Amino acid sequence: MRKRSSMFAGGPKGPETAGPDAAADWVARLASDQRTREDEQGLQGWLAANGANAATFDAHARIFNGVGALADDPEARAILMGAKVEKPARLDRRALLGGGLAVAAAGAAAAVIGPNLLAGKTYRTEPGEQRRLRLADGSTVMLNTRSKLRVRFDGAERRLFLDYGQAWFQVAKDAQRPFRVFVGKDEVRALGTAFDVRREGERATVTLEEGRVAIFRDVSGQPLPVSPASGGASSKLVAGPVAPAVILSPGDEARLVPAVAPTVAAVDLAHVQAWRTERVILESTPLGEAVAEFNRYGGPRLVLADPGLADLPVSGVFHTDRPQAFAEAVATSFPVRATTAGDGRIVLAHR
User: Fold this and answer.
1) Which residues cross the membrane (predicted)?
2) Are residues 219 and 193 in the same domain?
Protein backbone atom coordinates (compact mmCIF):
# COMPACT_ATOMS: atom_id res chain seq x y z
CA MET A 1 0.00 0.00 0.00
CA ARG A 2 1.24 3.44 -0.84
CA LYS A 3 2.73 5.47 1.99
CA ARG A 4 2.75 9.22 2.26
CA SER A 5 4.38 11.36 4.89
CA SER A 6 4.50 15.10 5.26
CA MET A 7 5.94 17.84 7.36
CA PHE A 8 3.31 20.32 6.26
CA ALA A 9 -0.01 19.34 4.76
CA GLY A 10 -3.02 20.22 6.90
CA GLY A 11 -4.27 21.63 10.20
CA PRO A 12 -6.55 21.16 13.19
CA LYS A 13 -10.22 21.98 13.13
CA GLY A 14 -12.37 23.60 15.79
CA PRO A 15 -11.90 26.44 18.27
CA GLU A 16 -8.17 25.72 18.70
CA THR A 17 -7.56 27.36 15.32
CA ALA A 18 -8.27 30.75 16.85
CA GLY A 19 -6.10 32.68 19.29
CA PRO A 20 -2.38 33.30 19.71
CA ASP A 21 -1.42 29.61 19.58
CA ALA A 22 -3.31 28.88 16.37
CA ALA A 23 -0.25 28.86 14.08
CA ALA A 24 1.60 26.46 16.40
CA ASP A 25 -1.45 24.20 16.43
CA TRP A 26 -1.55 24.15 12.64
CA VAL A 27 2.15 23.37 12.33
CA ALA A 28 1.91 20.57 14.90
CA ARG A 29 -0.99 19.00 13.02
CA LEU A 30 0.82 19.38 9.72
CA ALA A 31 3.67 17.28 11.09
CA SER A 32 1.29 14.41 11.73
CA ASP A 33 0.80 11.49 9.36
CA GLN A 34 -2.86 11.49 10.48
CA ARG A 35 -3.73 14.61 8.52
CA THR A 36 -6.67 14.50 6.10
CA ARG A 37 -7.84 16.38 3.04
CA GLU A 38 -10.29 18.18 5.34
CA ASP A 39 -7.30 19.41 7.31
CA GLU A 40 -5.77 20.80 4.14
CA GLN A 41 -9.00 22.59 3.26
CA GLY A 42 -9.26 23.90 6.81
CA LEU A 43 -5.75 25.29 6.62
CA GLN A 44 -6.52 27.16 3.43
CA GLY A 45 -9.60 28.67 5.05
CA TRP A 46 -7.61 29.74 8.12
CA LEU A 47 -4.93 31.37 5.96
CA ALA A 48 -7.55 33.21 3.92
CA ALA A 49 -9.40 34.47 7.01
CA ASN A 50 -6.66 36.90 8.01
CA GLY A 51 -3.81 38.34 5.97
CA ALA A 52 -1.44 38.04 8.94
CA ASN A 53 -2.02 34.31 9.37
CA ALA A 54 0.33 33.30 6.56
CA ALA A 55 3.27 35.24 8.02
CA THR A 56 2.61 33.84 11.50
CA PHE A 57 2.35 30.33 10.11
CA ASP A 58 5.64 30.69 8.21
CA ALA A 59 7.38 31.96 11.34
CA HIS A 60 6.28 28.92 13.34
CA ALA A 61 7.20 26.66 10.43
CA ARG A 62 10.75 28.01 10.45
CA ILE A 63 10.97 27.32 14.19
CA PHE A 64 9.68 23.80 13.64
CA ASN A 65 12.22 23.08 10.93
CA GLY A 66 15.04 24.55 12.98
CA VAL A 67 14.18 22.39 15.97
CA GLY A 68 13.81 19.39 13.66
CA ALA A 69 17.33 19.92 12.35
CA LEU A 70 18.68 20.18 15.89
CA ALA A 71 16.96 16.95 16.88
CA ASP A 72 19.38 14.98 14.73
CA ASP A 73 22.47 16.39 16.45
CA PRO A 74 23.34 14.83 19.85
CA GLU A 75 25.03 17.95 21.20
CA ALA A 76 22.17 20.17 20.08
CA ARG A 77 19.63 17.82 21.67
CA ALA A 78 21.54 17.92 24.92
CA ILE A 79 21.59 21.73 24.99
CA LEU A 80 17.90 22.04 24.18
CA MET A 81 16.86 19.37 26.67
CA GLY A 82 19.25 20.38 29.44
CA ALA A 83 20.74 16.90 29.38
CA LYS A 84 24.32 15.69 29.38
CA VAL A 85 25.86 15.22 25.97
CA GLU A 86 26.59 11.56 26.60
CA LYS A 87 22.90 10.91 27.29
CA PRO A 88 21.03 12.68 24.47
CA ALA A 89 17.25 12.78 24.68
CA ARG A 90 14.88 12.52 21.74
CA LEU A 91 13.10 15.74 20.86
CA ASP A 92 9.36 15.44 20.31
CA ARG A 93 8.86 18.29 17.85
CA ARG A 94 5.07 18.09 18.00
CA ALA A 95 5.13 18.27 21.78
CA LEU A 96 7.40 21.29 21.69
CA LEU A 97 5.14 23.17 19.34
CA GLY A 98 1.90 21.92 20.89
CA GLY A 99 3.14 23.07 24.28
CA GLY A 100 3.51 26.60 23.01
CA LEU A 101 7.23 26.76 22.24
CA ALA A 102 8.04 30.47 22.26
CA VAL A 103 9.72 32.19 19.37
CA ALA A 104 12.22 33.81 21.70
CA ALA A 105 13.14 30.50 23.34
CA ALA A 106 13.71 28.75 20.05
CA GLY A 107 15.74 31.66 18.73
CA ALA A 108 17.87 31.73 21.89
CA ALA A 109 18.55 27.99 21.64
CA ALA A 110 19.66 28.35 18.04
CA ALA A 111 21.91 31.26 18.96
CA VAL A 112 23.58 29.27 21.74
CA ILE A 113 24.17 26.23 19.54
CA GLY A 114 25.42 28.18 16.55
CA PRO A 115 24.38 28.33 12.89
CA ASN A 116 26.59 25.49 11.66
CA LEU A 117 24.45 22.88 13.41
CA LEU A 118 21.45 24.12 11.44
CA ALA A 119 23.21 23.97 8.08
CA GLY A 120 22.64 20.36 7.02
CA LYS A 121 19.65 18.05 6.74
CA THR A 122 19.04 14.87 4.74
CA TYR A 123 15.62 13.62 3.64
CA ARG A 124 14.79 10.21 2.14
CA THR A 125 11.74 8.38 0.87
CA GLU A 126 11.27 4.63 0.47
CA PRO A 127 9.67 2.94 -2.57
CA GLY A 128 6.01 3.94 -2.65
CA GLU A 129 6.49 6.86 -0.26
CA GLN A 130 6.11 10.58 -0.95
CA ARG A 131 7.11 13.33 1.43
CA ARG A 132 6.28 17.02 1.48
CA LEU A 133 8.74 19.37 3.21
CA ARG A 134 8.71 22.99 4.22
CA LEU A 135 12.29 24.27 4.31
CA ALA A 136 13.66 26.87 6.69
CA ASP A 137 13.60 29.59 4.00
CA GLY A 138 9.91 29.03 3.29
CA SER A 139 10.49 26.95 0.13
CA THR A 140 8.41 23.81 -0.40
CA VAL A 141 9.81 20.49 -1.61
CA MET A 142 7.93 17.33 -2.47
CA LEU A 143 9.94 14.12 -2.77
CA ASN A 144 8.71 11.29 -4.93
CA THR A 145 9.23 7.57 -4.40
CA ARG A 146 12.75 6.34 -3.46
CA SER A 147 14.50 9.69 -3.36
CA LYS A 148 17.29 11.28 -1.33
CA LEU A 149 17.80 15.02 -0.90
CA ARG A 150 20.52 16.76 1.11
CA VAL A 151 19.88 20.38 2.14
CA ARG A 152 22.74 22.74 2.97
CA PHE A 153 21.70 26.33 3.72
CA ASP A 154 23.89 29.20 4.90
CA GLY A 155 23.66 32.97 4.97
CA ALA A 156 24.92 33.39 1.40
CA GLU A 157 23.08 30.73 -0.60
CA ARG A 158 20.89 27.66 -0.55
CA ARG A 159 22.46 24.40 -1.79
CA LEU A 160 20.57 21.13 -2.23
CA PHE A 161 21.82 17.80 -3.58
CA LEU A 162 19.45 15.31 -5.21
CA ASP A 163 21.42 12.06 -4.92
CA TYR A 164 18.70 10.00 -6.58
CA GLY A 165 14.97 10.03 -7.27
CA GLN A 166 12.66 12.93 -8.02
CA ALA A 167 11.72 16.19 -6.34
CA TRP A 168 9.50 19.16 -7.01
CA PHE A 169 10.70 22.53 -5.73
CA GLN A 170 8.63 25.66 -5.12
CA VAL A 171 11.30 28.21 -4.27
CA ALA A 172 10.79 31.12 -1.89
CA LYS A 173 12.05 34.36 -3.41
CA ASP A 174 15.36 35.58 -1.99
CA ALA A 175 17.34 37.78 -4.37
CA GLN A 176 20.42 37.59 -2.15
CA ARG A 177 20.54 33.79 -1.86
CA PRO A 178 20.35 31.69 -5.03
CA PHE A 179 18.67 28.30 -4.76
CA ARG A 180 21.06 25.69 -6.20
CA VAL A 181 20.04 22.07 -6.83
CA PHE A 182 22.87 19.71 -7.78
CA VAL A 183 22.32 16.46 -9.70
CA GLY A 184 25.69 14.80 -9.99
CA LYS A 185 28.03 17.32 -11.61
CA ASP A 186 25.20 19.47 -12.96
CA GLU A 187 23.42 22.35 -11.26
CA VAL A 188 19.93 23.84 -11.56
CA ARG A 189 19.93 27.40 -10.21
CA ALA A 190 16.83 29.42 -9.35
CA LEU A 191 15.70 32.41 -7.32
CA GLY A 192 11.91 32.23 -7.02
CA THR A 193 10.30 29.60 -9.19
CA ALA A 194 8.81 26.10 -9.37
CA PHE A 195 10.47 23.18 -11.12
CA ASP A 196 10.79 19.39 -11.15
CA VAL A 197 14.04 17.41 -11.15
CA ARG A 198 14.28 13.67 -11.76
CA ARG A 199 17.59 11.85 -11.46
CA GLU A 200 18.25 8.30 -12.65
CA GLY A 201 21.90 7.37 -12.23
CA GLU A 202 23.98 10.04 -13.94
CA ARG A 203 21.07 11.20 -16.11
CA ALA A 204 18.60 13.87 -15.08
CA THR A 205 15.51 15.64 -16.36
CA VAL A 206 14.63 19.20 -15.35
CA THR A 207 11.16 20.59 -16.05
CA LEU A 208 10.27 24.22 -15.36
CA GLU A 209 6.73 25.12 -14.30
CA GLU A 210 7.10 28.82 -13.56
CA GLY A 211 9.82 31.45 -13.28
CA ARG A 212 13.28 30.85 -14.70
CA VAL A 213 16.17 28.50 -14.00
CA ALA A 214 19.72 28.28 -15.33
CA ILE A 215 21.46 24.95 -15.84
CA PHE A 216 25.21 24.66 -15.40
CA ARG A 217 27.23 21.62 -16.53
CA ASP A 218 30.10 19.93 -14.74
CA VAL A 219 30.22 22.22 -11.70
CA SER A 220 31.69 21.50 -8.28
CA GLY A 221 28.84 22.27 -5.88
CA GLN A 222 31.00 24.74 -4.00
CA PRO A 223 29.81 28.23 -2.87
CA LEU A 224 29.53 30.85 -5.57
CA PRO A 225 32.51 33.24 -5.73
CA VAL A 226 30.14 36.21 -5.83
CA SER A 227 29.38 38.84 -3.22
CA PRO A 228 25.66 39.51 -2.46
CA ALA A 229 26.37 43.15 -3.25
CA SER A 230 27.59 42.36 -6.76
CA GLY A 231 24.22 42.65 -8.42
CA GLY A 232 20.50 41.98 -8.40
CA ALA A 233 18.43 38.87 -8.89
CA SER A 234 19.42 38.31 -12.52
CA SER A 235 23.13 38.50 -11.80
CA LYS A 236 22.78 36.03 -8.95
CA LEU A 237 21.03 33.60 -11.27
CA VAL A 238 23.89 33.44 -13.77
CA ALA A 239 26.86 34.72 -11.74
CA GLY A 240 30.03 32.69 -11.47
CA PRO A 241 33.07 31.68 -13.51
CA VAL A 242 31.03 29.31 -15.73
CA ALA A 243 28.27 30.42 -18.08
CA PRO A 244 24.97 28.50 -17.96
CA ALA A 245 24.53 25.83 -20.59
CA VAL A 246 20.86 26.74 -20.96
CA ILE A 247 18.18 28.90 -19.33
CA LEU A 248 14.71 27.37 -19.26
CA SER A 249 11.35 29.04 -19.76
CA PRO A 250 8.07 27.70 -18.29
CA GLY A 251 7.03 24.49 -20.04
CA ASP A 252 10.60 23.60 -21.04
CA GLU A 253 12.17 20.28 -20.16
CA ALA A 254 15.93 19.74 -20.29
CA ARG A 255 17.50 16.29 -20.47
CA LEU A 256 20.98 16.08 -18.97
CA VAL A 257 23.37 13.31 -19.97
CA PRO A 258 27.10 13.35 -19.09
CA ALA A 259 29.38 14.56 -21.89
CA VAL A 260 26.38 15.43 -24.10
CA ALA A 261 24.90 18.89 -24.70
CA PRO A 262 21.50 19.37 -23.00
CA THR A 263 18.44 18.84 -25.14
CA VAL A 264 15.47 21.12 -24.45
CA ALA A 265 11.88 20.54 -25.58
CA ALA A 266 8.43 21.83 -24.69
CA VAL A 267 6.38 19.33 -22.68
CA ASP A 268 2.86 18.93 -21.34
CA LEU A 269 3.23 19.97 -17.71
CA ALA A 270 0.20 17.89 -16.69
CA HIS A 271 2.19 14.74 -17.46
CA VAL A 272 5.12 15.87 -15.32
CA GLN A 273 2.93 17.02 -12.44
CA ALA A 274 0.80 13.86 -12.33
CA TRP A 275 2.99 12.03 -9.80
CA ARG A 276 2.17 14.65 -7.16
CA THR A 277 -1.43 13.38 -7.20
CA GLU A 278 -0.36 9.72 -7.33
CA ARG A 279 -1.07 9.39 -11.04
CA VAL A 280 0.87 8.56 -14.17
CA ILE A 281 -0.30 9.79 -17.58
CA LEU A 282 0.70 7.65 -20.55
CA GLU A 283 0.34 8.63 -24.22
CA SER A 284 1.47 5.92 -26.60
CA THR A 285 4.15 5.09 -24.07
CA PRO A 286 6.04 1.84 -24.80
CA LEU A 287 4.86 -0.83 -22.39
CA GLY A 288 8.42 -1.49 -21.25
CA GLU A 289 8.78 2.13 -20.13
CA ALA A 290 5.37 2.09 -18.46
CA VAL A 291 6.26 -1.04 -16.51
CA ALA A 292 9.52 0.53 -15.33
CA GLU A 293 7.61 3.61 -14.20
CA PHE A 294 5.14 1.59 -12.13
CA ASN A 295 7.92 -0.46 -10.58
CA ARG A 296 9.46 2.71 -9.13
CA TYR A 297 6.59 2.92 -6.66
CA GLY A 298 6.94 -0.44 -4.92
CA GLY A 299 4.02 -2.83 -4.48
CA PRO A 300 3.60 -5.91 -6.69
CA ARG A 301 6.29 -5.86 -9.35
CA LEU A 302 5.30 -5.93 -13.02
CA VAL A 303 7.28 -8.29 -15.25
CA LEU A 304 7.24 -8.75 -19.04
CA ALA A 305 7.53 -12.47 -19.83
CA ASP A 306 8.21 -11.68 -23.49
CA PRO A 307 10.57 -8.80 -24.46
CA GLY A 308 8.51 -8.39 -27.61
CA LEU A 309 5.75 -6.80 -25.51
CA ALA A 310 7.97 -3.87 -24.56
CA ASP A 311 7.08 -1.81 -27.63
CA LEU A 312 3.28 -1.97 -27.28
CA PRO A 313 1.96 1.64 -27.08
CA VAL A 314 -0.04 2.25 -23.90
CA SER A 315 -2.23 5.27 -23.17
CA GLY A 316 -4.33 6.27 -20.19
CA VAL A 317 -4.31 7.78 -16.71
CA PHE A 318 -3.47 5.34 -13.92
CA HIS A 319 -2.90 5.33 -10.17
CA THR A 320 0.75 4.75 -9.36
CA ASP A 321 -0.21 2.47 -6.45
CA ARG A 322 -2.47 0.18 -8.51
CA PRO A 323 -0.23 -1.91 -10.77
CA GLN A 324 -2.83 -4.68 -10.87
CA ALA A 325 -5.42 -2.33 -12.39
CA PHE A 326 -2.84 -1.20 -14.94
CA ALA A 327 -2.05 -4.82 -15.87
CA GLU A 328 -5.74 -5.59 -16.29
CA ALA A 329 -6.17 -2.56 -18.56
CA VAL A 330 -3.26 -3.75 -20.72
CA ALA A 331 -4.76 -7.24 -20.90
CA THR A 332 -8.07 -5.75 -22.03
CA SER A 333 -6.50 -3.63 -24.79
CA PHE A 334 -3.93 -6.08 -26.18
CA PRO A 335 -3.54 -9.84 -26.70
CA VAL A 336 -1.84 -10.01 -23.32
CA ARG A 337 -2.51 -12.21 -20.31
CA ALA A 338 -1.87 -10.90 -16.77
CA THR A 339 -1.22 -13.49 -14.07
CA THR A 340 0.01 -13.27 -10.50
CA ALA A 341 3.02 -15.45 -9.70
CA GLY A 342 3.55 -17.20 -6.39
CA ASP A 343 5.98 -14.50 -5.25
CA GLY A 344 3.39 -11.77 -5.89
CA ARG A 345 4.80 -10.51 -9.18
CA ILE A 346 2.34 -9.60 -11.94
CA VAL A 347 3.48 -11.31 -15.12
CA LEU A 348 2.42 -10.00 -18.53
CA ALA A 349 2.67 -12.52 -21.36
CA HIS A 350 1.31 -13.04 -24.85
CA ARG A 351 -2.17 -14.53 -24.86
Assistant:
1) 95-118
2) yes
